[in-house]
Design a protein that fits this description.
CATH class of the largest domain: Mainly Alpha
Distance between the termini: 42 Å
Helix content: 55-70%
Strand order of the largest sheet: 1-2
CATH architecture of the largest domain: Up-down Bundle
Shape: globular
Mean pLDDT: 89
Low-confidence stretches: 2-7
CATH superfamily of the largest domain: GntR ligand-binding domain-like
Strand content: under 5%
Number of domains: 2
CATH topology of the largest domain: Four Helix Bundle (Hemerythrin (Met), subunit A)
Radius of gyration: 19 Å
């Protein structure tokens, strides 16, 4: 956790948390498996306290469940989980747009349109990592104007759970391009002065589980029966 005997600025709990979340993201800790806490603590060279604290944070974000007298299990991401996460992110990002809409200037619109164009280019180039990064950056343009720290933390936590489950580094080009089209429609509303319309569109279309459902099933559960995936 430390390099060359020099402690990093992040707390030990934060370092352990990031290590475990990255391990889930990479698929090294499999959904449905129980964690060997003794082995983890020994392999990381830490006590059980920072490990326990990191696991509590992961449980709060939905990555694991701490089961009394049974241990810690890595949670599966179900279709119901995805629906709830879409509802949460849509509501919160819509609220953020309403609160910062008056602060959005031409430079913000130019930045978002540029990022959106880069997303299209990334799809055409088959560059998943660039698409993923630009997509997050697009939303960060307006979220970054918000002073509501609690809202921002909730959005960040929900996106961690949605995207790091583990993350599949594959495209559904139809979905990715549909998403960039939604970004364009969203920006058209905002640039036209319709902040309420932009917020509603973001919540009711871009983050609508009903609208995105067929893509969600294809991406998250390509080989699973909906009932098995926790279907609705």
């Amino acid at each position: 956790m430390a390099k060359n005997g020099i402690l990093q600025l992040r707390s030990l709990r934060e370092q352990v948390y990031e290590y475990l979340r990255d391990a889930i993201n990479r698929g090294e800790l499999h959904a449905g498996s129980f964690l060997d806490q003794k082995h983890l603590a020994e392999s990381l060279g830490i006590s059980k306290t920072p490990l326990r604290d990191a696991l509590i944070q992961l449980e709060t974000e939905g990555f694991v469940s701490i089961l009394p007298r049974r241990g810690v299990v890595v949670n599966r991401l179900t279709l119901e989980d995805v629906r709830h996460l879409y509802e949460i992110i849509g509501a919160l990002e819509g609220a953020a747009v309403m609160s910062v809409g008056g602060q959005l200037a031409e430079t913000h619109f130019e930045q978002m349109r540029s990022l959106n164009a880069e997303m299209v280019d990334a799809v055409e180039a088959g560059d998943f990592n660039r698409y993923y990064a630009r997509n997050l950056s697009f939303h960060e343009v307006f979220l970054g104007l918000s002073q509501n720290g609690s809202l921002l933390r909730m959005v960040e936590n929900a996106k961690h759970r949605l995207y790091d489950f583990p993350r599949r580094r594959e495209f559904l080009p139809e979905w990715e391009l549909a998403s960039t089209g939604e970004h364009t429609a969203f920006l058209d509303l905002l640039e036209g002065g319709d902040v309420r319309g932009g917020a509603d569109y973001l919540r009711d279309v871009h983050w609508s589980f009903a609208v995105q459902r067929r893509f969600i099933v294809q991406y998250y559960f390509p080989e699973a029966d909906l009932l098995e995936a926790g279907g609705i």
